Amino acid sequence: MNRKKKYIPKSRHNPEVQARKIDLHREELRQIKKAVEALTFSHDNHISYLGNFARHDIKNSIQSMDSILSTTTAEEITEQQILSLKTNLKVIRETMENFSKLVPYSKDEKFEYRNLLIAVELLSRNDFYNGKIKLFKVYPEEEIYLNLPFQSVLQMFNNLIINSIKSLESTEKPIIQISAHTDSEKLNIEISDNGQSIPEKDNERIFEFGYSTTGGSGIGLYHARYLCELFNGSIQLSNTKIGFSKTFLIHLPIIE
Fold first, then answer.
1. CB-based burial label for 111 (10 Å; 0-12, 13-18, 19+)
2. Per the database record, which ranges form the Histidine kinase domain (predicted)?
3. pLDDT tens-digit map of 29-52
């Protein structure tokens, strides 16, 4: 006895649902592309900073040593020149040691907050010296570790420091203070300076692409916020800290 098969209609795709899915995937791809571009930009800048950092100190030391060795015979060399050669060798050794601090290695891809500040200070030390800027650092009592791409977080901090340095150009006694404390699962960092103030109405605009109050490109703060949010953190500007014209408040997730 033949039984008729139960008729099952073919499923049809809803064009509107499919269109929404395609739009969703496109947005996800756009966000991924944006994140990759931001990280690539950070990597490229980091490599550039490393090259400039090493070249500046080592080049100056080598030139100084070369000028002595190429114009002086063994019989003519003085104690002062020998001391100069030793000093420049010491500078080269210290530069190589500091270079390693700008590229910390960790098998589990984590780094300590103190190492980040050491790298920030090393990158901007010439600007601090030339601008007679005093840098104060207030560390948390405990060791704090971040599980984030070091070069990208360094780029984010460096962008904020560069912004502060530019705003301090006409300040009599320029000061930058970096302080931090922990709260629950977040590391809360404050980067304060007593440079050019920013009107409250522009507190959000300064993070817009291309907007600048210091005559810069308007990319640094935009990139800093994007990186911070990419790492599930946040960044905002405050003008309420006593003794300073502005403070950038950064919140980053930490490792327990």
1. buried
2. 53-256
3. 776 676 666 666 656 666 666 666
- For residue range 150-199, what is the model confidence (pLDDT) as tens digits? 878 888 898 899 889 999 988 999 999 999 988 877 899 999 999 988 88
Q: Residue 248: what residue type? A: F
